[in-house]
Amino acid sequence: MDHSKIKYLLIFLIAALPTGSQAGGSAYSRYGFGDILRNGDSRTYAMSGTGISLIDDGFINLLNPAGLARISYTRFSSGFEYTNFLSKDETGSSFYSTGSFQGLAFAFPISKEHGMVMAAEFNPYSKVRYGITALNIDTLIQEKTLYGSGGLSSMSLSISATPLNSLAVGARLNYMYGSTRQYQTSVTSNASYTATTFDRNTYFSGFTLTLGAIYEGVADLFSLPSLRPLTLGMTLTTASALDAELKETYPGISYTAGDTVVSTSGTAGLPLSLGFGLSYLFQDRYRFMGDIVSENWASTEYFGSRPADLRNSFRASAGFEALPAKEANSFWKRIVYRTGIAYHSTYYQINGVGINEFLVSGGLGLPMGPESQLNIGLQIGIRGSTDHHLQKDTIIRLSAAISASEIWFLRFDEE
Amino acid sequence: MLFLMSGCNDTPNSVGVGIQNKEDFGVVHVDTFYATGHTSLPNHLYTSTLDRFMLGKYESSSGPAYQAWTCMKFYNWPDSMIGIGSRITSAWIQLKGVYRFGSNPSAPLTFNVYKALASLGNDSLSYDSLALNSRFYFEASPIFTVTPDNLGDTASYIIPFQKLSLVADWFSTNTDTSHLNDGLIFQPTSSNIIKGFYSFNNADTSLQPTLFVMYNDTNGVSRIYSHKTGGAKYVSTVSQLITDNNFMYVQDGVSTRGVVSFDSIPIKWPVSILRTVLEVVAQPSVPVLHDSLYALSVAPTGLSDGASYAISQTATDSSGRHHYSIDIRAIAIRWLSNASVRKVAVSGFFEGGSFDLFRLYGTGALKPRVIITYSTQP
After folding, report:
1. Which domain covers residue B143, as residue numbers?
2. Are residues B205 and B278 in the same domain?
3. Rounded to an integer, what distance in angstroms lies between the CA atom of residue A100 and that of residue A122?
4. Quick one: B37 and B124 in the same domain?
5. Is the CB of A30 less than 8 angstroms away from the CB of B20?
6. What is the pLDDT of residues B95-153, one digit of tens each?
């Protein structure tokens, strides 16, 4: 197989894929910062975002900076996600699709002896995308459509170290930024009334800090050799009050018939996030993992007040990965198989009802060359229900991502 | 797989409405505010740009008294006509009628014609300035008095010149530096009619004022030359207009505008205004030619500036009174956004082209009001 051609073709394809149309998504994303994404990495994607305790070469752990410590070559990973929403409520159903860039990460070792690895990452953190049309809101407004778009992203710098043989620690400084837009159009039932529009853009920026640790010495700690394949991980991301600037635009209503823009400065809170994970590698081939993550969204403030539509979120997930045998020497034998399941008590609390999501996932890691994989993941989830005038989303996400090292780009002379 | 997932519906529909707060769609409010004050203010009419000018005087025992004087000047002669003055044998001005104010169509219109002594081209020229500085603007004695035959409202009026030396002076030069031609002033003397005539601004040249000059050419052949280049305007005045302070007087042809104050509109800006309707009610039994009103924005000086304006919809009758509705959304936006005064002026539809009078209620249950329909955002 001519890997050099395939890899450049894949890079081109991922770059050329559309980053999303103006299509809608779930109406839930109108609240908070929208749908919080937990991609982790192309590897963890297929395991329902499980991987806090993963520490491995050939993998940039975006969930836990301590997980970088084993990287021995410069690596990068990037991917694309295609998402379908089938949303239902008591009025009917809608089917939306969107494509988006899944992030980009580079990591390079500084000191293999001390597990010092640095990484630079760009990742989407949340996504807002919806369109809702309400008819006959009152006797005057015949139709009103709400659109939303945008979301938060993060640019991060990470570093890891291994102060002990069995302990890896890491820190990641995250610059959070982005904007959300809410846009309204209306159609009046009487032509003598002026149809109005309203545009609300909120711009965010600020920092959070993620600290992580992965411990591999449980077996020694408890003198239980059978626990040698067990690793424990934890992450803590600080809460933060992002600087937020709200710009509300009322088109065509100024003194000169131009736009009137009202700007308001404030803060928007991101929660304290605490995560724990464990991993058990059975027979050096079968990895079992579990994660839990809790975030106290209910304590955050948005422009000085607590959002009534948000609650604390909790996420529990489990993943499984079947690794190839060390002696595997063919393409098919080197494929990695992954699956996962997750339960997510999301931070949405609409009409007083918490919105929960169930997720199953699966995927493959296709070998693309030395230390390089094309990871394909599929997630199928169900969020919410149609009870209490709510909405049920059936979500299908497909991810294609590359995880590769510098070796992938080296040309070896064939003998 | 990507292809299987394509073909989705990207058009928003009602799915998701149930999880939105009702306020997310904006809340429409309809609030009514009544006028906190009213007044009637004189307004300067710029009549030189109108398609007509007025001439006449109207007095009645029970209502206001009006006067309209005309200023007219012919100029810009062709070079071939310069110097024909001594050969002019007769001259006359033809005016085409377009409007009458006064109940008696057969009432005679008589007027004096004066020679102007100063330029009348200043747009700020008013009746008061003309009357108070009459010796500056025109000769003390009229050149002649005109009593045209009454030929109806839209017929031609012929004003024969009885002093040909004046016309001869006009044709002596196009570079007048010694006030040979500052035009004419027509001062009405009859008291029962005001006539409107087409001005030089009318697009139909056949209706424009025309100076006819009969003269002998160098061969002694009699010829007639007609000239349509000139300017005309009118200045006017009214007395005894405001007799009841409970009313707001909107008088065309003079003009007087009503000004309504809305000082108490507690709407927090910004909001999306869908519509703002000004409602005014006219006293019954005041017939008008042009049954429509304008609403105009009012500058911080308190005077209407016309930066925003709107015309009334078809008036409706209720309980014998005439109701006018005017969409003043643009004006309301000015009020609520940054205006230091919240006033709106009301003028007649054809302010310079008629003498319509609107007596609008300014107090009581029928006083002006605005109905503001607006949407607020959460």
Report:
1. 47-238
2. no
3. 13
4. no
5. yes
6. 999 999 988 888 889 999 999 999 988 888 999 999 899 999 999 999 999 987 766 77
Among partner residues A27, A97, A134, which is closest to B25 by beta-carbon distance?
A134
Question: Which of B213, B238, B263 lies at the terminal end of a domain, its last residue?
Answer: B238
CATH of residue B81's domain is: 2.60.120
Same domain for B212 and B86, yes or no, is yes
Number of domains composing chain B: 2
Interchain proximity B8–A84, CB inside 8 Å:
yes
Q: Which residues in chain A have Cβ-Cβ distances shorter than 8 Å to B327?
A: 192
The mean pLDDT value for A197-208 works out to: 94
What are the chain A neighbours of B31 within 8 Å (beta carbons)? none
Residues B35 and B148 in one domain: no
Q: Which of residues 53-72 of A touch B (CB under 8 A)?
A: none
- CA angle, residues B23, B29, B33, in degrees to nearest 5: 155
The verdict on residue B64 lying in a domain is: yes
Q: DSSP secondary structure string, A386-400?
A: SGGG--EEEEEEEEE
Q: Taking CB atoms and an 8 Å limit, are A27 and B273 in contact across chains?
A: no
B340: closest CA among B305, B292, B288, B293? B305
Q: Is B12 in contact with A200 (Cβ distance < 8 A)?
A: no
In a domain, B370, yes or no: yes
At A223, the amino acid letter reads S
User: Is residue B287 assigned to a domain?
Assistant: yes
What class has domain A3-409? mainly beta
CB distance from A202 to chain B under 8 Å? no
A-chain residues within 8 Å CB-CB of B377? 184, 198, 200, 248
Tell me, what amino acid is at B202?
N
CA geometry: angle A63, A69, A74, nearest 5 deg? 95
Q: Report the candidate in B100, B89, B112 with the shortest Cα–Cα distance to residue B354.
A: B100
Q: Give dist(CA B135, CA B182) in Å, integer.
A: 14
Nearest to B17 among A26, A132, A194 (CB): A132
Q: Using the predicted structure, report yes or no on whether residue B41 has a pLDDT greater than 70.
A: yes
Domain boundary among B177, B209, B238: B238
| B303-356 tens-digit pLDDT | 888 888 899 988 888 888 889 999 999 899 888 887 778 999 999 999 999 999
Which of the pair, A348 or A39, is modelled with greater confidence? A348
- Interface touch A95/B373, C-beta < 8 Å: no
pTM: 0.78
Residue of A nearest to B21 (CA): A351
> Least CA distance to A187: which residue of chain B?
B274
